Amino acid sequence: MPHIDPRDRLIVALDLPSVSAAESMVARLGDAVSFYKIGMELTYGGGLGLARELAQAGKKIFLDLKLHDIPNTVARATEQVADLGATFLTIHAYPQTMRAARGALGGSTLQLLAVTVMTSYDDADLKEAGYAFGVKDLVARRARQAQEAGVHGLILSAEEAADMRALVGPDMLLVTPGIRMADGVVGDQKRVMTPGRAIAAGANHLVVGRPVTQAPDPVAAARAIVAEIAGAA
Ligand code: C5P
Between the N and C ends of the chain, which has fewer C-beta atoms within 10 Å? Predict the structure, then answer.
């Protein structure tokens, strides 16, 4: 596995209600955090401008937009995200969508992360949506298809990281949310792992939101996670 600076392995999810709240958090975190995830909520609330500004200021940006559309639209949207200077972009793991996004990267450094099956889905949800596969089989099928399409990595719960690492081998990036400190508040996450265990399970990057952004001291929280990552790597 390639060496990544421990600080770059922590991705803080800017799940905040407004661009100004997000800007304040970024200013507060300063050099303690180098990588931010901006999702649909903040993007639709004006967060794309923030993403561009942060990228220009030297931060790494993960745009969690979960693209899925006809190939031409996916390709054009991917080009726009690459121009913006983002490092990671999520797409749904449909073979057509993945091939279109991959083909649109050109010489850019943007890396694609596929969402195999959303963790809110169980077997009954997939059946209701018309699928012939259960979650486990569909996740494995789409992970292999992502690899074949040249997608760089997968986003998946930390609990799935060890099995997925065994399935896809050492080269694909595994990016995992659902991270909590050993003594932390779990909140609405059902299956969580500590940073150290997630890294040991094969995760390359950890997506962490509230344990940093809602901490009494966000800088100390981020530093503690980076230290735990460094200790487990
Ligand atoms: O605050 P918390 O650390 O739970 O935030 C986790 C982040 O990862 C959120 O942005 C959430 O939407 C995202 N995420 C997740 N579980 C998934 C996929 C994404 O928690 N299966």
Answer: N
